[in-house]
Amino acid sequence: MLNKRQTYRNLDQEKLVLLAQNDDYNALEELIKRVQKKVYTSFAYLKKDEENLSDLTQEALIKMAKGISKLKSPKAFNSWLNQIVMNLFYDELRKKCKKPEICSMDSCEDNMFFQIPDKLGLPVEKAMLSETDRIIKEKICTLPDNFKVAIVLRELQGLSYDEIAAATNTSVGTVKSRIARAREKLQCSLKNYI
To answer: What is the value of pTM for the model shown?
Structure first.
């Protein structure tokens, strides 16, 4: 027989959202467990330094927990959560300063991680993949913020163009343009490596 915790693990996200909206704290806890790494990773790719990553993640999850009852459609949960992440990211940018920061190689390679699908490869292959990941993260870090946000939401979070447009308060055309330009810049800066 399944215990309560295992039962919540087996529920799909939409059902968890519905339960959490009705003050089911076990459902909310399971929902937080499912999204916390995604939220942290989003901030890690968006920010150029490790400062406040855990605090921002915690703040996003608290806002999610407090506001989930106001979410109109459980199907819109991912877009809504990404909107929270983007708003906190933009708030953080406004706090720091108006001009963009320059990303040092040290801060980019130490604070971000990239999941490598095949962990059973040979040590040489692992080292090459690790170096490639470090270079890609470094190049993403150098993109202008609006390009970086668009490419992270599309390629790492898997959001649709419509969801990205909603999260960034821009048009779908602007999102497509930013993603295309980000890809172009990344291809250009990575052509000697890949």
So the answer is: 0.60
